[in-house]
Amino acid sequence: MAVGLIIGGASLALGAAYLLLIQWVIRQWHKLPVFEPAPIEPAPSVTILVAARNEAANIRHCLQALSQQNYPELSLQIVVIDDHSTDATAEMVEAFPHPNLTLLRLPAGQYGKKRALELGAAATQSTYLLTTDADCQPPPLWVQEQVQHLESAALAASTGPVLLTGTDSLRYRFQALDMAGMMVLTAVGLHTGTWILGNGASLAYRRAAFEAAGGYADNRGTASGDDIFLIAKITRGQGLPVRFLKSATVAVPTPAAPDWAAFLRQRLRWGTKNAAAPASAGTTLALGIAFLLSWSILLSPLLFLAVGHFWLVFLALLLLLKARADYGLLKTACQFFHQEHLLKSFARSEVLHIGYIAFIGLASLFVRKYQWKDRYVK
Known about the structure:
This protein is of the alpha/beta class and 378 residues long. It is built from 13 helices and eleven strands. The chain has two domains: 2-29 and 280-366, no CATH class; 36-276, Spore Coat Polysaccharide Biosynthesis Protein SpsA, Chain A. Helix content is 51%, strand content 13%. A seven-stranded mixed beta sheet has the order 3-2-1-4-7-5-8, with helices on both faces. It starts with a helix and ends with a strand. This is Glycosyltransferase 2-like domain-containing protein. It comes from Phaeodactylibacter xiamenensis.
């Protein structure tokens, strides 16, 4: 009995720590001012880098969105780097009518997003480099606000909000809620220096910072992580900070995973990336609390062996602590990004989230190879 109570008490302490952590995140988010754009004259030169592999279904829509950016045409270049596509991606880029669009192809023996971005960066001389994904459609003010953010705040790099699109379903709403919450966590982590997060679908940085960091020279062997690895290197090596662009206007839409299998592969890739990236004490603490709390909830029925049906009290309290924390975070995110409709699936998504954090977190510690873009990579 005593051992069971001690274990249950420790689990409740984890739940309380999680609640306090999330409440701190919410307070820090509200302290961050919403970005107020300010005109920049003359407009500095910008190159948008898009690494693409087998994106024939998406690349035209992406290029259409990039061609409609509210930024001086003479100062904006779009470079698509084809990563040995086996479909019509390259041909569609070549046929797209834009005067400042360039197609590059990765040479034989080189592959992957990092190699592609390095090739694109080396082929241009612009002041700023922006990256997005071939299945994204950045809104018209995306380039303008990212550049204004870099200039006005004297930043080395800026990562912006990314939100999911998809047909209305539990699978979509679960993914969209998770992504919206991640945007708040990203902003707070970078602002406070507690942890490093980012998303390559909306990332901007000074060319000088990219070159000073050596690009991806020391982590090309890891297929993913073109965002977090680079942000970490720039943060360590530059006198200028890296911040989150808090603006709902320029949230970049990207499709949710089309099915549960694709979602799990995607999140396993992200988890593997996070496990391989340099971890701060804040990152380890935050991930550890969430991971252990999820497993505490899943394993709580074992307390029946020590405390009988009293284990249900522990389970109820653990679920209450986690749900209160998560609802506060997700409500904050959804209100800012005008996605309040997603909250109707909060209860079901919360149940899924517990298993997702527990099992993906565990798998990411051991899995080193995964399937991505029709390749097995590590």
